Amino acid sequence: MSTAVATAAAAPLSDATLARFAREVAKYPAEQKQSAVMACLAIVQQEQGWVSSESEKAVAEYLGMPPMAVHEVTTFYNMYNQKPVGRFKLAVCTNAPCMFAGGPEALKHLCDKLGIEPYGTTADGQFTVQPCECLGACGDAPVMLVNDRNMCSFMSNDKLDQLVDGLRRAED
Ligand code: FES
């Protein structure tokens, strides 16, 4: 029998997803299972590519939290996608120190190269480009993250071109 959690408003969570949630919740005392909220949201995003409001509600229900509290986590952290993104999410830091060291120019170069606006996704679904907050590498500006994991430093226009072309080739 399926143990999927579903309500009229919430996206169903598969048994596999629930098993992963349970492993995260088990890391905390029973009365503090809400501490697993970031990990659960990360699992949802890993499996679905983004975190919909329905998924937020499902996570809230699972953890016994108000949906708004989950939404506050999703919207506070850059790494959670609140809408579908491309195969490659390119996040360029435009926070204050980077703002004066080429961050906005790197963001613009990427957008121009890909023919999209910030937060846009290419028509082929391959690339999403967006600004992001400080990545903790201000001295390496312009800096960016690929798919929330791979940090790229000193991103000149040439290096940005090489990155995008390399990612495209890797997909072909
Ligand atoms: S402000 Fe860009 S990495 Fe810190």
TrEMBL record:
| Keyword Iron-sulfur on entry | yes
Which reaction does this enzyme catalyse, per its entry?
Answer: a quinone + NADH + 5 H(+)(in) = a quinol + NAD(+) + 4 H(+)(out)
Give coiled-coil spans as residue ranges.
none
Q: Which UniProt keywords apply?
A: 2Fe-2S, Iron, Iron-sulfur, Metal-binding, Oxidoreductase
Q: What EC identifiers does the entry list?
A: 1.6.5.11
Q: Which cofactor does it need?
A: [2Fe-2S] cluster
UniProt GO MF annotations: 2 iron, 2 sulfur cluster binding; metal ion binding; NADH dehydrogenase activity
Q: Which residues bind [2Fe-2S] cluster?
A: 93, 98, 134, 138
Query: What does this protein's record comment on cofactor binding?
Result: Binds 1 [2Fe-2S] cluster.
Recorded hits in PANTHER family, A to Z, give:
NADH DEHYDROGENASE [UBIQUINONE] FLAVOPROTEIN 2, MITOCHONDRIAL, NADH DEHYDROGENASE UBIQUINONE FLAVOPROTEIN 2, MITOCHONDRIAL
- What name does this protein carry? NADH-quinone oxidoreductase subunit NuoE
The organism of origin for this protein: Ottowia beijingensis
The record lists the lineage as: Bacteria, Pseudomonadati, Pseudomonadota, Betaproteobacteria, Burkholderiales
